[in-house]
DNA sequence: CAATGTTTAACTACTC
DNA sequence: GAGTAGTTAAACATTG
C-alpha cells in the first residue's frame, strides 16, 4: 500500500510542498483529474478556467487552486461503508445498484476517479461482507444486471459517534445461527437472521419479505439451512413501486456494546402511499451526514477544532489550519471550495446536495429514470 | 465476456 | 498487546 492511498487526511499544502516524494506520488496518482485544474489561471481565457468534467473549478479563487489540488488528491475522510451508506441514503428509494454506488462516489470525490479497480473491489467486498448492507433482487419489471443494495433496517445510524472512518462497533445481525463448520458469517446466515429477528422490526419491508440475498447462491456452495426455507421474496408491488413509505414509529438500535446508544428501529408499512422508505432520522437534505452536527452530537463536539481534541477524534482531525470539521458543518468557504473541487459541483448546503436526484442517480445509462411522481 | 457478488487472507490502524 | 474495524488483493462463481 502506498502512502497516498493509505492516507485519509487532507494533506496540508506545506507538507506536500516540503516533500517532493509525496508530491510526486500525488501528481502521478491524480494526473487525470489534476489536468482539469489550471496551474496558472488565466482570467482572459475562459477555456482554461472551465473543465468539461468539473465546471465548478472555474469558480475557484486562484489563491485556492493549490489548496484545491491538494484537496482533490486526498482520500476523503470516509470509510467505504460510510460512502456506500451515503449513496444509498441519498438515492430516492434508498436502494442503489453497484454501478450507482460507483457513480455516486466518483462523481463526488475526485480521488476515486483513479485506481477504480482497487476501490471498486473494496466496495464490492464491503457490500458482501458487512451485515448492514442487504441485497435486493431485481423484479422482472426492472431488469438489468446486478441487484439493488439497501441498508439493513436495524443498522440504525452507524456513524452516530460522528466518525465516518471507523465505526465504534460493526453492525452485526443478532442471534446468528452458529455453524461450527464455518468461522464467518455467510450470506445465508444473513438471510436467515433477517427473518429470525423480526421481533422488533416486524413491519419492516426487509424482515417481512426478506429483501436480502435470495437470488444468488454465491461462489461457495453450501447446503441450505433451515433458515433459508423461511425466506420469501419481496412482493412484486415493491418493485413496481419502489417508493413505498415506512414511517418511523420508534427509533432504537440495539448494540451488543453497552456503550452504544440503545436505539430500536421500527417501521410501519403504508402500502398505498406513494412516499418512500425512510430510514430512521433520515434527513433528505443532508444525505447521510445528518448526524454530523453539534446539535445531534453535542457530546462529540467539545473537542473539535481545538489543539487537544478528545482522544476519540484524534484520528479524524486534520492538523490545525488544514481541515476543520466545524468548517464542514458550517459550510465555511474553505469547505465549499473543498466540496466543489472534490465533487465538481457547487453546493449551497452544508454538505452533499441531495436536492437534485438527477445529479447522480439518473444520469448514467445503467439506472432507471427518476420517478415522474 | 465483463460486471457483479462472495469469500479468504494479509495487512494497517485504532480502541480498550 | 489483544481484539476489532477497515482496506486491499486475489481467486473464484454467477449472471446478463
UniProtKB/TrEMBL annotation:
Is the keyword Flavoprotein in the record?
no
Can you cite a GO biological process for this protein?
A: anatomical structure morphogenesis
**InterPro entries registered for this protein in UniProt:** Fork_head_dom, FOX_domain-containing, TF_fork_head_CS_1, TF_fork_head_CS_2, WH-like_DNA-bd_sf, WH_DNA-bd_sf
Chain ranges of the Fork-head domain:
75-169
Q: Which residues bind DNA?
A: 75-169
GO molecular function annotations of the record: DNA-binding transcription factor activity, RNA polymerase II-specific; RNA polymerase II cis-regulatory region sequence-specific DNA binding
* Main subcellular localisation: nucleus
Compositionally biased tracts (Basic and acidic residues)? 174-191
**Localization (cell):** Nucleus
List compositional bias (Low complexity) regions by residue number.
193-207, 235-252
The protein's UniProt keywords, in alphabetical order, are: DNA-binding, Nucleus
Q: Where is the composition biased (Polar residues)?
A: 217-230
Return the SUPFAM superfamilies for the record.
Winged helix' DNA-binding domain
GO cellular component terms, alphabetically, are: nucleus
Is Secreted one of the keywords? no
Q: Where is this region: Disordered?
A: 37-58, 170-254
**Which protein are we looking at?**
Fork-head domain-containing protein
Which species?
Adineta ricciae (Rotifer)
Amino acid at each position: 500500500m502506498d502512502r497516498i492511498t493509505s492516507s485519509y487526511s487532507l494533506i496540508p499544502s506545506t507538507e506536500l510542498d516540503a516533500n517532493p516524494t509525496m508530491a510526486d506520488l500525488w501528481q502521478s496518482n491524480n494526473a487525470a483529474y489534476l489536468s482539469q485544474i489550471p496551474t496558472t489561471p488565466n482570467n482572459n481565457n475562459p477555456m482554461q478556467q472551465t473543465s468539461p468534467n468539473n465546471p465548478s473549478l472555474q469558480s475557484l479563487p486562484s489563491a485556492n487552486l493549490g489548496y484545491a489540488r491538494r484537496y482533490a488528491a486526498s482520500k476523503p475522510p470516509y470509510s467505504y461503508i460510510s460512502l456506500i451508506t451515503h449513496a444509498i441514503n441519498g438515492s430516492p428509494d434508498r436502494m442503489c445498484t453497484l454501478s450507482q454506488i460507483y457513480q455516486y462516489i466518483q462523481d463526488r470525490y475526485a480521488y476515486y476517479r483513479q485506481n477504480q479497480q482497487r476501490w471498486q473491489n473494496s466496495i464490492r467486498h464491503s457490500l458482501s461482507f458487512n451485515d448492514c448492507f442487504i441485497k435486493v433482487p431485481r423484479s422482472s419489471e426492472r431488469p438489468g444486471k446486478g441487484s439493488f443494495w439497501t441498508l439493513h433496517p436495524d443498522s440504525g445510524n452507524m456513524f452516530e459517534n460522528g466518525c465516518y472512518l471507523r465505526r465504534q462497533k460493526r453492525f452485526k445481525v443478532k442471534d446468528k445461527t452458529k455453524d461450527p463448520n464455518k468461522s464467518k458469517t455467510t450470506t445465508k446466515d444473513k438471510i436467515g437472521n433477517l427473518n429470525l429477528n423480526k421481533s422488533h422490526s416486524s413491519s419492516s419491508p426487509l424482515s417481512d419479505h426478506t429483501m436480502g440475498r435470495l437470488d444468488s447462491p454465491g461462489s461457495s456452495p453450501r447446503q441450505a439451512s433451515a433458515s433459508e426455507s423461511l425466506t420469501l421474496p419481496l412482493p412484486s408491488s415493491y418493485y413496481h413501486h419502489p417508493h413505498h413509505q415506512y414511517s418511523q414509529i420508534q427509533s432504537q438500535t440495539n448494540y451488543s456494546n453497552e456503550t452504544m446508544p440503545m436505539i430500536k428501529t421500527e417501521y410501519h408499512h403504508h402500502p398505498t402511499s406513494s412516499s418512500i422508505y425512510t430510514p430512521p432520522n433520515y434527513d433528505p437534505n443532508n444525505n447521510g451526514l445528518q448526524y454530523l452536527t453539534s446539535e445531534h452530537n453535542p457530546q462529540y463536539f467539545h473537542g473539535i477544532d481545538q489543539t487537544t481534541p478528545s482522544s476519540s477524534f484524534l484520528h479524524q482531525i486534520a492538523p490545525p489550519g488544514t481541515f476543520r470539521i466545524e468548517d464542514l458543518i458550517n459550510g465555511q468557504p474553505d469547505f465549499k471550495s473543498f466540496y466543489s473541487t472534490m465533487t465538481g459541483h457547487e453546493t449551497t448546503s452544508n454538505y452533499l446536495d441531495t436536492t437534485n436526484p438527477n445529479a447522480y442517480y439518473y444520469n448514467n445509462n445503467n439506472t432507471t429514470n427518476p420517478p415522474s411522481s
